[in-house]
Write a structure and sequence with these properties.
The complex is a heterodimer of chains A (301) and B (238).
Chain A: H1 5-36, H2 43-59, H3 61-64, H4 74-95, H5 105-126, E1 144-146, E2 151-153, H6 154-176, H7 178-188, H8 190-195, H9 200-222, H10 232-247, H11 252-273, H12 280-291
Antiparallel strand pairs in A: 1-2
Helix pairs in contact in A: 1-6, 1-9, 1-10, 1-11, 2-4, 2-5, 2-9, 2-10, 4-9, 6-7, 10-11, 10-12
Chain B: E1 8-19, E2 22-33, E3 37-41, H1 48-56, E4 61-68, E5 71-72, H2 78-81, E6 86-89, H3 101-106, H4 118-124, H5 126-130, H6 141-153, E7 159-163, H7 171-186, E8 190-194, H8 198-204, E9 207-212, E10 215-221, H9 229-236
Parallel strand pairs in B: 3-8, 3-9, 6-7, 7-8
Antiparallel strand pairs in B: 1-2, 1-4, 4-5, 9-10
Classes of the chains: A mainly alpha (301), B alpha/beta (238).
Chain lengths: 301, 238
């Protein structure tokens, strides 16, 4: 097989494109796990839901409202889908997750896993499992850019750029601002933060809302690339959990960097031995678990 | 009681508290006047820390009455209680390791007007200024204790709940803390001190409550301290 710089760079770019999805989803999981101590298994389903908000907003919302000409456009979907799913997250946290904090992690995991199955089941019942195309990709993002070593689709470049912006923006807010200092302190010792007079329960609700809104945002970004299907989240989340295990729960930068790197590793594996690309992340996970069980960026407790 | 103690800053009556199934406080009654400094003495496990935690709403369940400045707080959510002007310094100091010294200082929201400004605090604790960009738990034990104190002086809280602030610290630091507490008392702060170091407490306090088995066994004023020594030693098991 011929390995040229060109094929390597192409796969790096395509890998990075997958990597930003891993990064944005594992970032949301890390933020949620940090403050809520809950492994949010519903993350994949909410990612899928975000894509469906965009899809249905484009195809069905107008007719439903009696305005057949109305189509929710892509840019609006990028804002509205996270808001809708974030609001749903707020309701989930307030009505269900809140009751579980005093118990072991496991209960939150089971509850969110159940939610994921319900959401996915309902969508499987009503929508095409093999997926529907989302055809609202804006004109301006059509076509490709010449990167020198390859022609790269404009849309994918946009996805990489905006995802990196959102990831590092989130990192900045958490690690460098006053708001973030509440979140970090609340992650360490929520009782004391409460005793200082901070409304920690509200902070927890909004954090969950933000975490799942990130998933929905990723879902909208994914919609024009992959077809929108009820199982898109389930497929994605398995890899993302492997990313989280490798990176280590709870580290913000760790989750971002691990997501990006593993996307690239996946891409590079395609150059060397393509059939292994879908398993390489799990191989790395096994090795990391054996060598450093807390994950690359995790703290041993 | 002196004039400044005429108004009750804190009044606790029939306070009971539980952690899960274990019943820790069995009807505690105590009052603290404005500007007063009282200590809670007792053996480990007698319930002194639990009294402070109950005031902050940090126990599993509590009943009875706790009024702060006349406002009943027993049914209040924890995050509202601090806004009645209470500053809490927990036993393990509670310095956040993922926050810098300055972030630790700025974390507790201002709950009342008249708190110290950041420059005031840095003038009072020059070490903290020097190390303001270090992570909180990189400080020495003494510095961490100063940080835990400084942190609640910024908020404007007038009632300070201080849990074992001298624990595990070198004598020279304990002396510095003693001077700080005396200074704060002079400024009009009302202070409840849970203290293991009786000599530290004896010099500073107006009154002492002896806690035993989750209730108040004895109240000793500064004037009666000398005559109550034997009794006190019995309770404290020294």
């Amino acid at each position: 097989m011929d390995i040229t710089l060109q094929t390597v760079m192409s796969q790096v770019m395509l890998g990075l494109n997958n990597g930003v999805f891993y990064a944005i989803l594992s970032l949301g999981l890390a933020v949620i796990f940090g403050l809520l101590n809950i492994v949010n298994f519903a993350h994949g389903a909410l990612y899928m839901l975000g894509a469906y908000v965009a899809l249905l907003g484009f195809t069905s919302l107008g007719p439903l409202l009696g305005m057949p000409d109305f189509h929710l456009n892509y840019w609006a979907a990028l804002i509205i889908a996270p808001l809708v799913v974030g609001a749903l997250g707020v309701v989930i946290e307030r009505t269900m997750l809140r009751r579980l904090y005093k118990f072991d992690h496991l209960y939150g995991l089971l509850l969110t896993f159940g939610l994921a199955l319900i959401i996915q089941g309902v969508f499987t019942n009503f929508f095409n499992v093999s997926g529907d195309p989302y055809e609202a990709k804006p004109e301006i993002l059509n076509g490709a850019v010449n990167l020198g070593f390859m022609m790269f689709p404009k849309y994918r470049l946009w996805v990489i750029a905006i995802s990196l912006l959102v990831c590092f923006g989130t990192w900045y807010v958490i690690e460098r601002t006053k708001l973030g200092s509440y979140l970090r302190a609340g992650t360490e010792n929520p009782e004391l933060v409460k005793a200082f007079g901070v409304n920690v329960p509200l902070m927890i609700t909004l954090t969950y809302g933000y975490g799942v809104a990130l998933a929905a945002f990723a879902g909208v970004l994914a919609a024009p690339i992959y077809s929108v299907s009820p199982v898109m989240g389930a497929e994605m989340i398995i890899t993302v959990f492997a990313v989280v295990v490798i990176g280590g729960m709870g580290s913000i930068m760790g989750s971002i960097v691990t997501g990006l790197l593993l996307g690239i590793v996946e891409g590079l594996t395609k150059v060397v031995y393509a059939p292994a690309s879908s398993t390489v992340i799990f191989l790395i996970m096994v090795v990391v678990l054996l060598v450093k069980p807390a994950g690359l960026f995790g703290r041993e407790s | 009681m002196s004039e400044s103690e005429s108004r009750n800053m804190l009044q606790i009556s029939c306070l009971q508290a539980w952690y899960g199934e274990s019943h820790i406080l069995h009807g505690v009654d105590l009052t603290v006047g404005e500007g007063e400094l009282v200590t809670l003495l007792g053996r480990n496990g007698a319930g002194r820390t639990t009294i402070l935690k109950s005031i902050m709403g940090l126990v599993g369940r509590r009943s009875g009455s706790i009024t702060v400045n006349g406002d009943e707080t027993i049914a209040m959510a924890t995050h509202r209680i601090a806004h009645h002007g209470i500053g809490y310094c927990p036993e393990e100091r509670g310095i956040f390791s993922s926050l810098t010294v300055e972030e630790n200082l700025l974390l507790p929201p201002v709950v009342k007007e008249g708190g110290m400004s950041l420059p005031d605090i840095y003038a009072m604790f020059p070490n903290l200024k020097e190390r303001r960009n270090s992570m909180g738990t990189r400080l020495s034990g003494g510095e961490q204790q100063m940080l835990a104190m400084a942190r609640i002086l910024r908020t404007g809280a007038k009632l300070l709940l201080l849990d074992e602030i001298t624990e595990g610290l070198a004598p020279v630091i304990v002396q510095a803390l003693g001077r700080l507490i005396a200074q704060l008392k002079e400024k009009g702060f009302t202070i409840i001190l849970v203290e293991q170091n009786f000599h530290f407490a004896a010099d500073l306090a107006d009154r002492h409550y002896v806690i035993d088995h989750g209730s108040i066994a004895e109240m000793i004023t500064r004037d009666n301290l000398a005559s109550s020594r034997d009794k006190l030693n019995r309770y404290l098991g020294v």
